[in-house]
């Protein structure tokens, strides 16, 4: 009788330990695609202009997670595809009740063509929680440098030119620090898997 | 039964000579004023001869170019490609995140939903006309994205 109780207690304990291990493992669940920085990196000075024509600084990025992507509105393929993926991932997380939800931040490296008006129209196509901004090339370069990513200012003739840019998605934490990088090509399913782990909501 | 089937197959082969064809054509309107629209499709060459594309044009745009998004070391670049030569019995696929047609220089603003005519010209003098609806890119739309 007492040996039965012992076994039951032992099994219960094992169960509790296993559950604890499982929870711990889940909190540190392996990321499918995102690469978490060992230590979040501050952005330094942020001097951008948002899609409403207002100045955007690091202070405006505090308080929420942001998924940051560099691109430009004339980019027909990879930029809208990535924004569609980010919007789709965010929508899937929202319907799963995941909190906090990241905001999507599109930074244009083509300030000559991407006026606030163009950016406002562009961002609105992908959803209410997409913010777009741009800035002077020197300020964009400084931000890109702090983030450890690359872009090349648009070059070409007249209206017919293109820019090359890092295709990585950067995750900024609510302290406006670079917390993780999702290298390209991103998979929507991997974003859905990784984002709650990064934001600590699972 | 079997002879009838074989006869039907043979007849089918005679009635439908293998000609170049396009499948899975889809496109998206530009996201900024005056910007390029994008079109994806797969071009099939079921003939027994090579099929050389010499040009693609559209009455709605100044020109149509073949581009490829190239990801190298995390950086996305677009590069322009030559028109392809398809070997006999092969196909050539354009796909989001890879090769795509750029419809450059709209003669007038091209709104989402526009049905855009395209003409493919081949070296043997042949042509292939198709119409592609340029859809709106949205966060909830058809989601024409890689997995």
Share of residues in helices of chain B? under 10%
Which whole number gives the mean pLDDT of chain B?
A: 87
Low-pLDDT runs of chain B: 1-11, 142-147
Number of strands of chain A: 11
The run of helices and strands of chain B is: HEEEEEEEEEE
Order of helices and strands of chain A: HEEEEHEHEHEEEEEH
What overall geometry of chain A do the principal axes of the alpha carbons give?
globular
Through-space gap between termini of chain B: 45 Å
**Greatest interface:** A-B, 39 and 35 residues
Q: What would you report as the Rg of chain B, rounded to the nearest angstrom?
A: 18 Å
Give the biggest beta sheet of chain A.
Answer: 8 strands, mixed
User: What class do helices, strands and sheet pairing of chain A give?
Assistant: alpha+beta
Number of helices of chain A: 5
What does this structure look like?
With 202 residues, chain A is α+β, with helices and mostly antiparallel strands. Chain A contains 5 helices and 11 strands, in the order αββββαβαβαβββββα. In chain A, helix 2 packs across helix 5. The radius of gyration of chain A is 21 Å and the shape is globular. About 3% of the residues of chain A have low confidence. Chain B is mainly β and 147 residues long. Chain B contains 1 helix and 10 strands, in the order αββββββββββ. In chain B, strands 1, 2, 3, 4, 5, 6, 7, 8, 9 and 10 form a 10-stranded mixed sheet that branches. In chain B, strand 4 and strand 5 form a beta hairpin. The N terminus and C terminus of chain B are likely disordered. At the A-B interface, helix 2, helix 3 and strand 9 of A face strand 4, strand 5 and strand 8 of B.
Keywords, please?
heterodimer; A: 202 residues; alpha+beta; 11 strands; B: 147 residues; disordered C terminus
